[in-house]
Amino acid sequence: MNATFYVASTVAVLATLLVITRTQAVHALLYLVVSLLAVALVFYTLGAPFAAALEAIIYAGAIVVLFVFVVMVLNVGGDAARRERAWLAPGAWVGPGVLCAVLLAELLYTLYAGTPGTTGLHPVASRQVGAALFGPYVLAVELASMLLLAALVGAHHLGRREHLER
Questions:
Q1: Apex CA 35: angle with CA 92 and CA 20, to 5°?
Q2: Paired strand residues for 118
């Protein structure tokens, strides 16, 4: 199980570095999906299947779909179709495809080799996560929600039509 952890964490670090260094937004998003899935596998190997499922569903699913929607909306102009064809070139899929294949092989090995899903730690149930979040860590949860609300208000203020026309 330690090998699974180290390979998944290496894939996560490599994919994150590729997210930072890509100049095309769509290519960076492909590597972001790989990075988030690798982090989900790291969570799973550390005994947190609930956090792994949340990482895969919320971040790798919903948030990346939101990023793709923003890229599509901001992609206006005459040469947009030419750029989109360049984004979907087969060479753009080789790196994320190889990293995803490594993660898939690792996940299948972990699931079907008969090894336990943790590295010696006990799994944390979703009830325990909820009790911790709304028990001793309720202040941190409220502060994070206020931070997200401030970011939402700031994004709305920056994106107003009057602000863009000045």
A1: 65
A2: 46
118-129 per-position pLDDT tens digit: 555 666 777 887
45 touches 9 (CB < 8 A) = no
Q: How many CA atoms lie within 13 A of 46 on its CB side?
A: 14
- 27-42: pLDDT as tens digits: 888 888 889 989 988 8
**Token pair of 4, please?**
């699974």
Query: Six-digit token pair at 69?
Result: 């929607």
Tell me which residue of 85, 87, 109 sits closest to 96, measured CA to CA. 87
Positions of E strands within the chain:
none
Cα–Cα distance measured from residue 148 to residue 142, given in angstroms and rounded to the nearest whole number: 10
